[in-house]
Design a protein that fits this description.
Blueprint (H helix, E strand, L loop, with lengths): L1 H8 L19 H19 L4 H23 L11 H22 L11 H7 L1 H11 L6 H14 L1 H4 L1 H21 L6
């Protein structure tokens, strides 16, 4: 794909040098559009007001089919997140659909509304604000307090699980202002 970027941008490249390149590139954005369109279609599907159980089952089935298609296509065109390959898009969208189906059934299928200020409901009702806050504060993950929680947990649970400790702490810190906004009815919408 670097040849295409050089043809479009000329000598400008993200990584300098005679064989310089842009890790994402122009053609690399096409799969992200595909993933966004899949998400839009899923959102439209959920808004149709079909029975929750049937929607969740169909969503899980469609997600499973996307995962299978992505894994099969991955044998020809590898699943690489950094390049956002089409096989990665299929697998990641499929996994997201299966997880969403589970949450749709568990949360929306209860027959009662989630309370304002609860963890999942607050993030769901104010997803844009949560995303913006995450982008503004993600530098905190390299702060000493977050690194300390990892170093403390690593001997107890191992490095893989210990890596989740600062992330969980970060999510809880993000939840605090998002829950406060939710309780006051303040929502960022497009």
């Amino acid at each position: 794909m670097s040849w295409f970027d050089r043809a479009v941008f000329g000598s400008w490249r993200y990584v300098a040098g005679p064989k310089g390149y842009d890790p994402e590139g122009v053609l690399g954005t096409l799969p992200t559009f595909a993933e966004a369109l899949i998400g839009t279609l899923v959102g439209d599907w959920l808004r149709r007001g079909q029975p929750i159980r049937r929607t969740a089952i169909r969503l899980a089935l469609a997600g499973t089919l996307l995962i299978a298609a992505g894994v099969a296509w991955g044998l020809v065109f590898p699943i690489i997140k950094d390049l956002w390959t089409s096989s990665f898009v299929l697998v990641s969208a499929g996994v997201a659909m299966v997880v969403l189906a589970g949450f749709h059934l568990a949360c929306d299928g209860r027959g009662e509304k989630m309370r304002r200020g609860d963890l999942l409901g607050s993030f769901g009702r104010n997803a844009i604000a949560a995303y913006a806050l995450h982008e503004l504060t993600s530098f905190l993950l390299s702060a000493d307090v977050f690194q300390w929680t990892y170093r403390w947990a690593r001997p107890v649970v191992g490095p893989e699980l210990a890596a989740l400790v600062p992330v969980i702490l970060f999510i809880l810190l993000l939840w605090w202002p998002i829950a406060a906004m939710d309780r006051r009815g303040w929502y960022l919408k497009t």
